Input
Amino acid sequence: MTIATHDGTTQIDHIIVSRYGIFVIETKNMKGWIYGNEFQRQWTQVIYKKKSKFMNPLHQNYGHIKNLSELLGIDECDIDSIIAFVRDHTFKTPMPDNVTSGFGCFGYIKSSKQVVFSPEEVEEYVLAIKTNQKIPGRATEKAHIAHVKNKRQEAEKPYSVSSDPHCPKCGNPMILRTTKKGPHAGEHFWGSPDFPRCRGTRKISYQ
Output
């Protein structure tokens, strides 16, 4: 579903609203061997020795949770992230409990026993989500793609050390960080204050 946000739109695969919290499910229709952990920027898919990289779905889903928490006016800790891989796959590295296979996501949801919301709050949040849901169709999809493209271009725009940029992923004011390893060790960049949960970055311009 496509949901209107304060600065555009966000696309979320599934949202479950209950008295035990809100669960945002990111579905991955991927097969093969899956390698990754919660801190890596990218995970790896291997099919017959062919390797390909894809964005860490936990980081991807964090952006959805951030937008949803702002829309509903609730704390992010009351929204649970779930990643559901639904094809013939094998996890080759240990995964967090909220990264599941197939219908395992429902077992994860049912394991939540602490009541978080009242029945009235559940109805309120469901109504808010439905009210802000965009009508499915080509126009909505086209507008969302344009929004994502603009955000990507904005994220690649360099900011000077005297500026006060906001993270293109989580929206929080960014802080100056220094690259510690690799060919760019010692170089500065703008980073999200929520690292490693959010890995949004911006380049620095010295002009």
Remarks:
- The helical segments are 57-72, 104-110, 119-132, 138-156.
- Residues 33 and 193 are 32 Å apart (CA to CA).
- The chain has a mean pLDDT of 85.
